[in-house]
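User: Quick sanity check before I run a bigger batch. Here is a single chain. Can you write out its predicted 3D structure?
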Amino acid sequence: MTYFTFNQSLKPKTIIMWNFDNHDQISVLCSKIKIPVLSANCYDPLDPIGNIAVTYDIVRWTEDGYQARITIQNHYQYRHIEKPGWQLGWAWAASEVIWSMSGAFATQQGNCSNFKSEIPHCCKKDPIIVDLAPEAPPEKRSDGCCHGGYLAASAINPSNSFASFEMKVGNLRGNYTAHRPLNLTLMAPGPGYTCDEFVDTDPTTSSVIEGQRQEQVIRTWKSTCTYSTFLANKSPTCCVSLSTFYNPEVTPCRLCSCGCKLADKEAKSCIGLVTKQNSLLLLQCTDHMCPLRVHWHIKKNYRYHWRVKLTISNYNLRKNYSNWNVVVQHPGFSHQATVFSFNNTMLPTVGVPDEVALFWGLDFYNDALLQAEETQVGSVTTEILLRKDMSSFTLSNGWAFPRRVYFNGENCEMPLPQIFPMLPNGYSNVKPCSSHLSVLLLIYLTYETLNFWS
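Assistant: Done. Predicted structure follows.
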């Protein structure tokens, strides 16, 4: 069995192919390999059609321009945009200005000295637009706005996976030939997204009068923005550790998975670099120096089921993770699974040999992964009961461990298969006892014990 993962610390960009049958590792360059569902830019194969779509609608003409509605739709299944949120930018093709806005605002007004009576909201050639806060007053709001820049993942909360705002564009000076904006950019909130140029498409339509009438806008432009981890991060942000009930040894995160700690052995806190926003985070000092760790523990082996404990730990001393999610690729999810303390759903994929499960927190219970303290980490955990496929289930050769793990859409560094917890000699041939045999064995041992003491 072979699967693929990425090593962001290697230059140039490298795909790691693991073979679970013999623990072989093959490294190949992204630019050299041709794999279905993996593009040359190495976008996520677990969400191959994920993107963020930007729709620019011209709703009606005005005296010197037009009224526009812009919609940002997150089609990524599990990659959300967290606060401080999205920033949308472009360059005007002519001398346009923004007279007014609702549902969002431009971060800079620019030089509006040429306007004497009425001052535009923004005169910059390259405006940057951001979302309003949820507590924005009614007169500033529009439909679909005011989430503070947050866009939910489409598989988790589709009703909050889009944002919309309106603006009055002018200074076209009687020329009713609108020019599409150029050089679209999306920061969410850091780098990583690349946007196509706006292209003409069929005008957007909407239903009115309780669906009895269809109305369409004057003109529609659309752009698609896609995310690349390699453009966003210079180093990983999470790692995976493993343990089992049958082996006392814990397979830790790989040494220096996300960086190396300070030489000072007595230090309790270390500086870790999170390159998505190019900012420094204060972390607990660890051998892996990752802000986040995902731990997979094989807890029990029953006759028809097996049980796993999944724990996500936060080593940030000053950062909480709200609306977190974890993706796990594992063939065991092809059969019924019961998740006790997280929300979960199965993700549709294309060309991926194993099933992919998405987990996220329960509202008002564990949907926030709290920051660490000096003596303990913040964590959330659940147990998962999986039904066995008797034709494929095995505890041998690392089958029971994940193939790939993502936290908030970022690939987590996996341990080398050579150091996975191994079965004791001969254990792979031992079948789990049924409940009836366990009861009989308990009765027999009790009987022998009583005879011994009598």
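Residues 294 and 312 are 5 Å apart (CA to CA).

User: Great, the batch can go ahead then.
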